[in-house]
Automatic annotation (TrEMBL):
Signal peptide: none annotated. Pfam families: CMD (PF02627). It comes from Rouxiella badensis. This is Carboxymuconolactone decarboxylase. SUPFAM superfamilies: AhpD-like. GO terms for molecular function: peroxiredoxin activity. Residues 16-99 form the Carboxymuconolactone decarboxylase-like domain. InterPro entries: 4CMD/NDH-1_regulator (IPR052512), AhpD-like (IPR029032), CMD-like (IPR003779).
Amino acid sequence: MSKFPITRETLAQVAPKLAALSEEVLFGDIWQRSELSPRDRSLITVSALVALSRTEQLPYHLQLAEKNGLSGSEITELITHLAFYSGWPTAASALAVFAQLTLE
């Protein structure tokens, strides 16, 4: 992972327009649409991040997934399931991030 994690605050300093789009469009519109629950959106988002090996984004979205109702065992199962679709290394990397969050 990066030594300089991008948070909402640092994103706003580095790329104000991208931060505004994230707040207004992604989290203000897309995540608020009623067609999928926040829990379902978290399942989809974490799955995509795992499959694409986007480990820098995983900590935030794993924590959000738990806030949106996913249990630790469900997240572990999601990652285990993806090992067979996105590859063993992507799953192992995601489990390392998840383990670090849960053991802190």
